Structure formats: structure tokens, C-alpha cells
Amino acid sequence: MFALILRGEGKLLRNEGMNNRKARADICAVDEILLKHRISLLQLSVVRVSVVFALLLLTALTAWAQRAGTKPIYPIKFKPGVKTTVVEGTVTPPHGEGDMHNSGFERYSLRVRAGQYLTMEISSDNHQAMFSLIKPSPDDETVERAGGVKRWSGRLTESGDYLITVFTREREVSHFKLGVTLR
After folding, report:
1. How many angstroms separate the CA atoms of 134 and 163, rounded?
2. pLDDT in tens, 49-107
3. Which domains are present in the chain?
4. Which residues contact 150 (CB under 8 A, 6 or more apart)?
């Protein structure tokens, strides 16, 4: 079986399993179109490969630019029936300038319902990691008494995705464990 589809001069040529004589005639017609437009199959292949390469390069550059400029926000999830989880990570002091600036923090999101009780506690190898808990409102308002702390507990008043930012103020790397209990 043989299949050929080519668009040239507004015509669509097809050959899907026709007899050999008809297939040879269609191939000759395709050759005439290619010669008329001075396009060889090799040139056509080069164009296709170039377009695919350009798309792959564009995708890679976009992903790299996003990674370089935007740190991800990791969702905190609980296993079914479990109310406590621990997330681990590393934070560094902020450093660099302009596009090469590294804020050093890690961010997490926690989806809650109004009225749930949250307890969070952080520990780190050098005792320097801390966190802030930010309300799901568009104002980036910190939850009362939950800015730059090592432990916080309280009843949450709003439903939505709270943002937890873990950071260090010291000049050294801090490996942390953040315990989160939601009831």
C-alpha cells in the first residue's frame, strides 16, 4: 500500500492504495510540480527539520526563561485520612542582582476551608529557617502573628489557597522540615 498527499498550486493530490499504473502517474505529476516550483524532496525535508528544530528550541528557551525568573509554588497535599504532613527543602539567603537575582525562598500553597485549624512548625539544621503564612486574598496580607515565625497555630478565617513562604535571614544555606497539621 502506498499513500501520498501533496498540496501544490491549490490542488490536493492523493494516492491511497490505487493500482501501480495510477500510482506511477501520480508520482510523475508530483515530480512535475516539484520541478516546476524548483523544490526537491531534500529541500522539503530540510525545511521540515528546520521548522521542527525551531519549535523545539523555542519550547526549551521558554521553559528555561520561566525556570530562571519564576520559582514554582509547590502544593502541600495530605494522604487520604491523614491530617499531618511534612515538607522538606532548602533555602538560601537572597543573592544576585537583576535577572540573576535568587530570592532564596521556597513557596508552598495550602488549600483550606474557613474554620479549619492549622498548626505549622519548622525546624532546620542551623535553626535559621522561618516561614510566613499569607491569606488567599489578592492583597498578599500575612495572617496575624504568622510573619517570619518558626511556629504558628490558629483557626483560619478564609477559604482558599494560603501561601507559605519559607526563608532564611542568615548568610548560610538552611535545610528545613516544615510540619503541617490541618484539622
Report:
1. 5
2. 665 666 566 666 555 544 445 778 999 999 999 999 999 999 988 765 655 445 778 99
3. 3-69 (no CATH), 73-182 (2.60.120.380)
4. 121, 122, 123, 129, 130, 131
